[in-house]
Write a structure and sequence with these properties.
The protein is of the alpha/beta class. The chain has a single domain, classed as NAD(P)-binding Rossmann-like Domain (Rossmann fold, 3-Layer(aba) Sandwich), CATH 3.40.50.720. Helix content is about 35%, strand content about 20%. It has 8 helices and 8 strands. The chain has helices at about 10-20, 35-45, 55-60, 105-115, 130-135, 155-165, 180-185, 200-209; strands at about 1-5, 25-30, 50, 60-65, 85-90, 120-125, 145-150, 170-175. Strand 2 (about 25-30), helix 2 and strand 3 form a beta-alpha-beta unit. It is globular.
Length: about 210
């Protein structure tokens, strides 16, 4: 599969490495214009390329958004992701670490408005990049892997993202629709940044969902 990654930070870099190891091709668009994406591509070899944000989005069958939520200029044009799966891994957190005011709306709803013709799946935002990089457990059964929560309104899109999660050694757990499930994954929730096994995650959803 071709995956476009927007953002060459810790999360984007970790997922790029793991997805290349799983046999995918990645294009990394670095909105900061730094050398981070080029250095990463050199390590990953021919299955990775460094490119512009828009070209990364056009390259991918699936697009990962791993840039600051409050930097809309770092996002690709809406037309470049039309008809595609867009993984929203962003959190509405300010540079000082505080939750940004969204007037009671879920951040994923705002992302969906920015990309009205894409199929948005919320994932990878509630787990640290270090956990993604170090805690994948391909050699153990699904019930003994750490969880990556997902939310969305399109079942096929969630199934495809679930496969990408499983291929790097984690277990996807569905939190529901984009609006409701996305809110359950936001900073400050009982699910955010709490590494869990599937049984614990399902129990948490029963209690707090």
């Amino acid at each position: 599969m071709r995956i476009g990654i927007v953002g060459a930070g810790e999360l984007g870099g970790a997922l790029a490495e793991l997805w290349v190891s799983a046999g995918h091709q990645v294009a990394i668009g670095d909105p900061g214009g730094s050398s981070a994406s080029k250095d990463l591509v050199e390590r990953l070899g021919s299955s990775a390329r460094s490119t512009t944000i828009e070209d990364a989005a056009r390259f991918g069958e699936v697009i990962l958004l791993a840039v600051p939520f409050g930097a809309p200029d770092s996002l690709p044009p809406a037309l470049s992701v039309a008809g595609k799966i867009v993984i929203d891994a962003m959190n509405a957190i300010s540079e000082t670490g505080e939750n940004m005011p969204l007037d009671g709306r879920a951040s994923s709803d705002i992302v969906a408005e920015r990309f009205p013709d894409a199929r948005i799946v919320k994932a990878f935002n509630a787990i640290l990049a270090d956990t993604i990089r170090s805690e994948g457990r391909l050699s153990v059964p699904a019930d003994r892997r750490f969880v990556v929560f997902i939310a969305g309104d399109d079942g096929r899109s969630k199934a495809r993202v679930s496969t990408l999660i499983e291929e790097i050694g984690f277990t996807p757990i569905d939190t529901g629709s984009l609006a409701r499930g996305g809110r359950l994954q936001e900073p400050g929730s009982k699910l955010f940044n709490r590494p869990m096994l599937p049984a614990d995650a399902r129990h948490a959803l029963q209690l707090f969902g």
